[in-house]
Design a protein that fits this description.
Helix content: 55-70%
Number of strands: 0
Number of domains: 2
Shape: globular
Largest sheet: none
Structural class: mainly alpha
Radius of gyration: 15 Å
């Protein structure tokens, strides 16, 4: 699993675990320094089980132990699988770094729609979702900016 895939996996599954949209969880991971930790400790963490990673993220962000067992019930796995392809397309199309593409996607309206299971956007191809992102960028007459 690549670092990008691992980060997407953690964000998507933790969002499902805490019942929050993944774009909000991404911002929480970024503000809390967890994204940097996932990158720097990738070799030690990427082989850990799903339940352990959810507890690890919760303890890191909240300083609390997660007492409930996490059983995936949404589309986090599907999103985590196609999100790296979306990010690679954005990197290629806009010349952005991986971090910049992650930031811009998760902070966009397209990223918010992707995070919402009710839209069904998680079931579309990476090319389709990146195309929606491009249309969003055109509609504001510039590349989406970082917040």
């Amino acid at each position: 699993m690549s670092q990008l895939s691992f980060i997407c996996f953690c964000v998507e599954h933790y969002a499902e675990h805490v019942h929050r949209p993944c774009n909000e969880v991404y911002q929480l991971f970024k503000r809390g320094g967890l994204l940097d930790l996932l990158r720097s400790d990738y070799e030690d963490l990427h082989g850990m089980g799903l339940e352990y990673m959810m507890q690890f993220c919760g303890e890191y962000l909240n300083g609390q132990s997660a007492c409930e067992i996490y059983l995936p019930d949404g589309h986090a796995t599907v999103r985590a699988m196609i999100l790296p392809d979306i990010i690679h397309l954005l990197m290629k199309n806009y010349g952005w770094t991986e971090e910049e593409a992650l930031n811009r996607f998760y902070l966009s309206a397209t990223g918010a729609s992707f995070a919402d299971d009710d839209t069904g956007l998680y079931g579309q191809s990476a090319l389709y979702v990146s195309g929606l992102f491009a249309e969003e960028a055109k509609s504001i007459n510039a590349s989406p900016v970082l917040s």
